[in-house]
Specification:
The chain has 244 residues and is α+β, with helices and mostly antiparallel strands. The chain contains eight helices and twelve strands. It has a single domain (7-240), classed as Alpha-Beta Complex (Spore Coat Polysaccharide Biosynthesis Protein SpsA, Chain A). A hairpin with a 2-residue loop joins strand 1 and strand 2 (26-27).
Length: 244
């Protein structure tokens, strides 16, 4: 998912989409794409706004460079993540789908999670991470091994578990999105999709061990650059020492 106007990163986004800005040594969008391909997900749809759609095509082409097949969908207005997901119904042929936000960068592999979801007969799977600024995110309230609710950007978070921008849904999601009502922001919220599965009792979750960050604000973009740079340099040092 690579829509939105990128207003929080203006003027950098005056000439291109936020998800095409660099994070250390690669365009931002490369990181979620690589996670998908590593997990064996090779048919990928990029949803972007109309203004910079050609930039994505010029950069990514058919997806051959990644060993994937990439399609493109256009979100005509800023209608929310759930609306953007709904544009992919035909692409997914109303089957299971994995969704990752184009400004989210994960250290952990999602290979095992993708296999778990493939074996999951029904429902959804989301990924949580302990954070110190939970009020910026959707926040999960957990009881035992179950999520009992998710609150979007709460003033007083009930936990420090942020819902990251990686979601796995079964085929029910296409009807769920169609029945959503716009929030106070006038958008279809992905939190409402997740809460549907929570109420149904079919939501599963995993907690991330490695670092995770979004890169959609100047502070988080800087953090993403620093985290990726440190990881790349550490890997370079390990290779030089013959440890990789």
């Amino acid at each position: 998912m690579a829509g939105g106007t990128g207003s929080r990163m203006f003027p950098n986004t005056k000439v291109t989409n936020k998800h095409l800005l660099p994070v250390y040594n690669q365009p931002m969008i490369y990181y979620p794409l690589q996670k998908m391909v590593e997990a064996g997900i090779k048919n990928i749809a990029i949803v972007s706004g109309s203004g910079n759609a050609g930039h994505f095509l010029n950069l990514l082409g058919s997806g051959r460079e990644f060993g994937a097949k990439i399609s493109f969908e256009i979100q005509e207005e800023a209608g929310g993540i759930a609306q953007a997901l709904g544009l992919c119904e035909d692409f997914a042929d109303r089957e299971k789908v994995v969704v990752i936000l184009g400004d989210n960068i994960f250290e952990d592999s999602i290979v095992g999670a993708a296999l778990n979801f493939e074996r999951q007969e029904r429902g959804a799977r989301i990924f949580l991470k302990e954070v110190t600024d939970a009020q910026r995110f959707g926040v999960a309230e957990v009881s035992g091994d179950k999520i009992v609710g998710i609150e979007e950007k709460p003033g007083r978070p009930k936990s420090n578990l942020a819902v990251t921008g990686l979601y796995m849904y079964d085929e029910q999601v296409w009807d769920v999105v169609k029945n959503l009502k716009p929030s106070g922001r006038g958008e279809l919220e992905i939190t409402d999709v997740n809460n549907f599965y929570i109420r149904q009792g079919t939501m599963q979750y995993e907690t991330l061990n490695g670092w995770w960050t979004d890169a959609g604000t100047f502070p988080s973009w800087l953090r993403a650059n620093n985290l990726v740079a440190r990881k790349v340099m550490n890997e370079g040092e390990r290779k030089a020492a013959g440890l990789l």
